[in-house]
Amino acid sequence: MTATVIDGKAFAAKVRGQVADHVARLKEEHGITPGLAVVLVGEDPASQVYVRSKGKMTVEVGMNSFEHKMDADTSEEALLKVIQDLNNDPSVHGILVQLPLPDHLDSDLVINSIDPAKDVDGFHISNVGLLGTGQKSMVPCTPLGCLMMLRDHHGSLSGMNAVVIGRSNIVGKPMAQLLLNDSCTVTIAHSRTKDLPGVVKQADIVVAAVGRPEMVPGDWIKPGATVIDVGINRIDAGLKEDGSPKTRLVGDAHYDSCAAVAGAITPVPGGVGPMTIACLLANTVTACSRANGLKEPEGLTA
Ligand code: NAD
User: Fold this and answer.
1) 114: exposed, middle or buried (Cβ count in 10 Å: 0-12, 13-18, 19+)
2) How far is ligand 1, taken at its centre, from the CA of residue 15, in Å?
3) Local structure of 95: helix, strand or coil
4) Fewer beta carbons under 10 A from the terminal one: N or C of the chain?
5) Are residues 44 and 131 in the same domain?
6) Do 98 and 53 touch, CB atoms closer than 8 A?
7) Domain that holds residue 203
8) Residue to mutate (ligand 1; options 98, 171, 188; most atoms within 8 A of CB)
9) How many domains does the chain have?
10) Does residue 297 contact residue 285 with C-beta atoms inside 8 Å?
11) Whether 249 and 175 share a structural domain
12) How many C-beta atoms lie closer than 10 Å to residue 154's C-beta?
């Protein structure tokens, strides 16, 4: 079998189009422009790239983008004051604090100081609790993107066996919760799981969120299963013509061997990655609609 490739880039473009339509309606019918504020502390190069690209896409869908750049040695007090101001600012509907924060800042304290209704990353303890009890919440962007792709591919997920490899708070746990809320039978596997190949082999849906390059080979996959590869790993890829080192991105699944067995698979790059920012924009327009007591955009929430 050769797997259907789930094109996350095209899907993300579609989601951004839906967000843009909803933003246009909010502006025309209600005179409201959704706003997303991103707070970046320090100068981590990868974080700077993410923040730039988030800002660009926010503007492209017609929303207001607010960037707050703070020095790496910013005090907790100063950061909490910025968040408080954003919580109180009615033109800001979504607040995202770019992680990781410098070591001297307490990430949990900072995240939990965001107004849960504006917590478009879905990391606030209230949103985690709401998701865990099947109530309306803000849902973390990466697992939301995975869920959207799975629903689009399968329709109903009810009764399917899902194995999520990885138990992080930002991907593995919320992913498992979302699949459970969609009536899958869910197993969370992690670094201490016994017989991981045997566990994965039971799955109709495998979500790999580990951070280990090409860890999941095709012979772990049940024929016809769907593989959602969340991993983003940069590995060596020999030398360029000029002799300088070359790298390439790979996922947590070994793509070629998994694609030969699976029914469907997301590639890396071009799978889950593009969906994450699209879902951030979706969450912002959802938060804006909720804040104004208006109908939420259809198909953009869990
Ligand atoms: P993390 O390091 O917080 O968690 C990794 C998890 O993998 C842990 O729960 C650990 O128990 C598990 N694990 C480690 N070794 C294992 C092993 N040998 N067998 C089974 N499980 C093992 O990572 P994270 O933040 O959840 O991210 C996971 C991957 O997803 C990373 O590659 C990251 O770059 C990527 N990621 C991608 C996006 C995106 O937008 N596509 C977003 C977030 C994370």
Assistant:
1) buried
2) 25
3) strand
4) N
5) yes
6) no
7) 141-274
8) 171
9) 2
10) yes
11) yes
12) 16
- In this structure, the residues whose C-beta lies within 6 A of any atom of ligand 1 are 142, 165-168, 170-172, 189-191, 193, 196, 209-212, 230-233, 272-273, 276
Residues 148 and 267 in one domain: yes
- Residues 149 and 143 sit within 8 Å (Cβ to Cβ): no
Catalytic residue of the set 98, 173, 177, 252: 98
* Whether residue 54 sits in one domain with residue 113: yes
> 185 has which bridge partners?
161
- Alpha helices by DSSP H, listed for 182-271, are 196-201, 255-259
Instruction: Mark whether 43 and 99 lie in a shared domain.
Output: yes
| Domain co-membership, 224 together with 284 | no
Kindly state whether residue 14 falls inside one of the protein's structural domains. Answer: no
Active site annotation includes 121: yes
Residue-by-residue pLDDT tens, the chain, 302 positions: 689 999 999 999 999 999 999 999 999 999 999 999 999 999 999 999 999 999 999 999 999 999 999 999 999 999 999 999 999 999 999 999 999 999 999 999 999 999 999 999 999 999 999 999 999 999 999 999 999 999 999 999 999 999 999 999 999 999 999 999 999 999 999 999 999 999 999 999 999 999 999 999 999 999 999 999 999 999 999 999 999 999 999 999 999 999 999 999 999 999 999 999 999 999 999 999 999 999 999 999 99
- CATH number for the domain including 245? 3.40.50.720
* Spatial separation of the C-alpha atoms in residues 77 and 120, rounded to whole Å: 22
37 with 86: CB under 8 angstroms?
A: yes
Catalytic residue among 115, 118, 119, 121: 121
Closest by Cα among 193, 190, 258, 255 to 220: 258
Rounded CA-CA distance 70/110 in Å is: 14
